[in-house]
Amino acid sequence: MSFFGLECGRQGNREEERRLKANDRDYNLSFKYATNAIKTSKYNLLTFLPLNLFEQFQRIANAYFLILLVLQVIPAISSLSWFTTVVPLVLVLFVTAAKDAIDDIHRHRSDRKVNNRKVQVLINGELRSEKWMDIQVGDIIKLENNQFVTADLLLLSSSEPLHLVYIETAELDGETNLKVKQALTVTGDMADSVTDLAAFNGEVRCEPPNHRLDRFTGTLSYAGQKYSLDNEKILLRGCTLRNTEWCFGLVIFGGQETKLMQNCGKTTFKRTSIDRLMNELVLCIFGFLATMCSILAIGNYIWEVQEGSKFTVFLPREEGVNAALSPFLTFWSYVIILNTVVPISLYVSVEIIRLGNSFFIEWDSKMYHAGSDTPAEARTTTLNEELGQIKYIFSDKTGTLTQNIMTFNKCSINGKCYGDVIDYTGQRLEITEEMESVDFSFNPLADPKFRFYDHSLVEQVKLENAEVHAFFRLLALCHTVMAEEKSEGELHYQAQSPDEGALVTAARNFGFVFRSRTPESVAIEEMGVHRVYELLAILDFNNVRKRMSVIVRNPEGKLSLYCKGADTIIYERLHQSCGKLMDVTTEHLNEYAGEGLRTLVLAYKDLDEAYFTEWKQRHHEASTALDDREERLNELYEEIEKELMLLGATAIEDKLQDGVPHTIEQLAKADIKIWVLTGDKQETAENIGYSCNMLREEMNEIFIVAAHSPEGVREELRKARTTMKPGDEEEDKFVSKTILGNIPKIIPDEAVSGEYGLVINGHSLAYALEPSMELEFLRTACMCKTVICCRVTPLQKAQVVELVKRYKRAVTLAIGDGANDVSMIKAAHIGVGISGQEGMQAVLASDFSFAQFRFLQRLLLVHGRWSYLRMCNFLRYFFYKNFSFTFVHFWYAFFCGFSAQTVYDEWFITLFNLVYTALPVLGMSLFDQDVSDSWSFEYPQLYVPGQRNLYFSKTAFMKCAVHSGYCSLVLFFVPYGALYDTVRNDGKDMADYQSFTLLVQTCLVIAVCIQLGLDMSYWTIVNHIFVWGSLAMYFVITFAMYSNGMYRVFPASFPFIGSARSSLGQPCVWLTILLTSILCALPVLTHHFLLIQLQPTINDKVRLKVLQAKAAPPPPPKRTRMRRTSSRRSGYAFSHAQGYGDLVTSRRYLHRPVKPRSGGFTPTGRSLAAFNPAGRSAGYSPTGRNQNPKQEVEPTSLQMYRTRDMDF
């Protein structure tokens, strides 16, 4: 459901500061703040007709035809009936109005659905159910679990301890991991007391409405105290409340003023580049039409002066008309006659073609995603051909390139790599969905969605390999994940990031199940045994430390520190005996990094009780210090996190959507540049760049722009540009391009030797987008093969798109799946939404939508290219056909005394575009294709001509006009010469007006059909029916209209009685038709032949290969992941935000205590006290293991496996 409107924010005086009082509507209404209602519709019943007609007549062609209609009702100048113009004009206006009305009805329904949602509001001391649209700023509302957040709220209280709430921001950014917000203690203590909340009269003073989703500043004044407000206390509209029974919030911003709506961007009417070119060409055609009419008017004046007086005896002039007035009337008469240079049927046909190609996209079964039951959808039917000209793609990351799912793929434990599948020959196999995964049925608490394919690791777990057990024990203990058990054995983990969730889930499946936590303890199931570890300290993660540690005491009283973090950080803190193991683990890490996996190193350390007691006292003093608290704590962390023993490493895959690397590779071959604009941090974005093969180590260089000042950013950009193009001038380069009097600056593409990548973060991008530096940034970015912008706001995404649109002669496409992508999607020429995900805001704002990123290559390389090719072929042919039709009138004027007499029958003029030539050209425009879809994928380079406008341009238009001029000369003078002084078989004269008209008409219809056949590459049964059927229809209608019967019924309308029978029965007429057709087609055939031989296009070359192959291209070879190593580390496999350590170790529970349970495993199986993880040297696997004594109790399922293995 759309939360977006067409305009974002109130108009009028700019608000400097927002002031509001809780529970005081009268006070808040005095400021005239926006209500919570949204309006995205454009019309209502009263405004629809005038406003829609006003918009339609802003199109030059529609206004032109309206003027023509007015001229045609003036008898003195009209030589054609009014219905020749009014019928097609009314048809176009009606079809367009109906389409606009349907679209606006959908918007009205969407608005009503959102505005009429119900929420509980505190009014006059009681909770009432009110519609969203009736909510006012300053109201206190109650939200319940799984409800959408109604407006931008200040969190007052919640059902959770510590006044926390958990929200899901999938509607905002496509991310499904939960985020935590916390209320002020002073408001949180009111809990759900309606009395206290109704008495709450706090005053909020804060920033005015703005687009910054990640920032909020304000103050709350209450009970004589002032409290600071930040983004951690704000719930934004578009979020969803999760895992929280209820919460109360104070409305700060409503409706159009919410941060979500401020980021929506303006809804603009999108037009294709062909539409814009057509407007320019139409203006040129009008000028050309005026020139032709002026020439003919001058000719009329000369003829009237020199010859006209001789005819006045038997052809007297109308009253009041003389030789001076006649040219003026003749000018307007020829404007009417020659108006077919821009026929209104052109626009009707264009809309039909676009609609048909939109249906092809929606009907394409290869773009249907069965998993989510989501077909592709063309939400806008006017932009299809633009899909064949894309030069820049701007993509979101989370939910667009990735699935936002982290999977535990591989690990290295004690120098041995696990995760690969090895066959009997010792070769590694490519892991596929069909491959048999590890059977975790022995573990009743295993996550059924977890997949792992290396059976050797689970065997090591069952054989009680000490290092493997220590490895998974660390993963089960060292984290800040929250566990929720809704029913017996049904565990749900709420992780700060998907990475941590994946690691804890992996430990869970391998027998080390994290069950619950309190601020003082962590409870886990170890191979069926319930064990509670005392949690003594959490040394939390941050961006500087790049590691996390926990200090725990096991049930046997042993103290241990478990640590996980980046390899470079952990390696500095390892015991010197770990050298050999560190070398082996580094090899594994390089291999993981080469595969684009996110790596993490695990280590541990046993602690001395006396030392830890003394260290804990110093830690307490440092944590309560008023000065230098952070520095003192970091020193203590550094002190204790030393002499660690290496356990191994993990490799997490940020799971890409299917086919993403291949799609990006194909688009790159089509010379399409892809920029990733993401809100994620730099490490995460870089990691995805490598996973998608957008960034490669083979690149000459990858530039990182991360300066914190304008001067620093400018220097880094210039340094990058100088590296790519040494000796490059400092001044900006532009190419002037005049468009309707405007001269915008166009930055040309600059060639560089080699391949480069650019990564720029959010704060640097903010400087780079300033007017003084935007061209510097754009030049540098456009020289790179890949550009990744990190930590960008939704508005910055739109600004980057607008920057490229403004200074590059290129068509842009933006693709995303969340509300934070909406402004970018609206700003680009084409917006694509990924549907079937949690958030649907991007889909509602998009022009096209589908479920998977991989469908983008089919949308562009097949449907987009075909649509553009078909539209260009249509326009070239249509202009050729109508110019040829119209120019014959021009030549005829020199032989009819410039009298504005038509060379054709009036009915032929009416039916030529509507009946005789409409279906053949529509058939070509809907079904033609130069090569099949499979060959289009085989040669993505076929896409390049569309980017360069090679199929239709001003040059192509001029060639078309010249070709039409030649054909019109042939069509007029060959029949004229053939009938001149010609007699029929019976000796009667044949050179009459009606016979000449019929011959020219027939030659024209056949010539344009031959030209259509030469232009068409792909003949279907439909094309055959349309072409031959239209020719047959012409002769049937001609014989019918020129029959005696029609003349008797309508003598004034059908004067050509018997002309068809008389003329078409003569051999010389058919010989003339044959000669005319050959003369019209011969230059075209010659031009095509010479072009293919001397200067073949990429299309000609591929079509030749298709003919030589005589079959579909071979299926693409099975893509296997290339194994390579890399010293570059992927993003660290845990959250890149400040951790929740302080919350976890606070003196209150984060979740209510879970109910007592017996557990999935029998907790009395065995003791692990005999395991001593410190009893090995790094790199050395002990040969002897302490075996647990046999238990007298019934063994668990895990123990039964172990017993069978040992007995074997």
From TrEMBL:
Its main location: membrane. Its EC number is 7.6.2.1. It comes from the Eukaryota. The chain crosses the membrane at residues 83-102, 281-303, 323-348, 874-895, 907-927, 956-976, 996-1014, 1021-1042, 1069-1091. Gene3D superfamilies: Calcium-transporting ATPase, cytoplasmic domain N (3.40.1110.10), Calcium-transporting ATPase, cytoplasmic transduction domain A (2.70.150.10), HAD superfamily/HAD-like (3.40.50.1000). Residues 843-1096 form the P-type ATPase C-terminal domain. ATP binds at residues 396-398, 500, 541, 564, 598, 678-680, 791, 797, 820-821. Residues 1155-1208 are annotated as: Disordered. This is Phospholipid-transporting ATPase. One of its GO terms (cellular component) is endomembrane system. InterPro entries: ATPase_P-typ_cyto_dom_N, ATPase_P-typ_P_site, ATPase_P-typ_TM_dom_sf, ATPase_P-typ_transduc_dom_A_sf, HAD-like_sf, HAD_sf, P-type_ATPase_IV, P-type_ATPase_N.
